[in-house]
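User: I would dearly like some help making sense of a protein record. I have put the entry right below:
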Amino acid sequence: MSYTEQKALAVADPFINRVEMAAVIVAIVITNEDATTPGHDKRTLFAAQVLRDSRDQARILAHGVAGDSAITRDSIDSVIAARLNVIWNPYAGYNPNDPRP
């Protein structure tokens, strides 16, 4: 997909709705992950933001999800959830390659 097509997808309400539901589910899973998971504090802080304001966060996350050129409006839910898992750390502000805690 072109950037123009990706942007159109990212701002489409039906797509945002799907991202929102997937983000809530992923956030719940992350909230319950082992505390020794790398980046746990930042990951769970972002998960809490998603759970408190899922709609606004979905509007933001939809751009990262649609930024994968393999994602289309016809992508199945598990593909959207998998993409959220890939982009969660950057949106949470966690970089596993950063030597700072």
About this structure: Residues 3-92 form one domain.
